[in-house]
Amino acid sequence: MKALTYIVSICLAMWLGGCSSDERQSTRIPPLPSDDALKRAEIGVEYLSAIIRRSPRNALNYHRRAELYIVLKNFPAALTDINDALEISSSNGLFLLTKARILRQIKRYDEALAAARRAEVLQQYTPDL
User: Fold this and answer.
1) The pLDDT of residue 78
2) Per-residue pLDDT reduced to its tens digit, 26-83
3) Is residue 46 part of a domain?
4) Looking at residue 21, what DSSP letter applies?
5) How many Å apart are CA 68 and CA 44, to the nearest integer?
6) Contact assessment for residue 77 and residue 104, using Cβ atoms and an 8 Å cutoff
7) Which domain holds residue 87?
8) Is residue 27 a part of any domain in this protein?
9) Residue 117, domain CATH
10) pLDDT value of position 96
11) Quick one: DSSP state of residue 30?
């Protein structure tokens, strides 16, 4: 019986010593503001715009900026950028999937389906479409 009491006492002491508030240890990460992603996207658009001005023939930069425009819900600008990317690299399945997502958002479903089918031919798939 003494051994059981001893074990319970040790377990209780370990449990109490191990439990401490996050505030006391200063390890708590504060929650991010909800518009943080929007601010990062806006900064990213500005940064990529400067890069595109210096190197306008890089399709990947247009695609990246289109993705940021999607976050900002600026679908016309996203569509313009993804079309520019596809003009440079017309057989990129990832670009076609992005175009399909944008077209779906602006309710141009037939065009979205056509872009998704072209992407599928290039072996690009997504559960979003």
Assistant:
1) 98
2) 556 665 546 788 999 999 999 999 999 999 999 999 999 999 999 999 999 999 999 9
3) yes
4) -
5) 7
6) no
7) 35-129
8) no
9) 1.25.40.10
10) 95
11) P
| The two three-digit tokens of residue 90, written as one number | 């017309």
Q: Is 4 within the bounds of a domain?
A: no
Q: Kindly report the backbone phi and psi dihedral angles of residue 20, in degrees, each rounded to the nearest multiple of 5, phi listed first.
A: -150, 155
| Other beta carbons within 10 Å of 51 | 14
Q: How far is CA 109 from CA 80, 92, 129, in A?
A: 17, 20, 11
Q: Which two tokens stand for residue 40?
A: 């990062």
Would you give the end-to-end CA distance of the chain in angstroms?
Answer: 65
- pTM, two decimals, is 0.69
In a domain, 8, yes or no: no
CA distance 34 to 87: 35
CA dist., res. 119 & res. 113, Å (int): 10
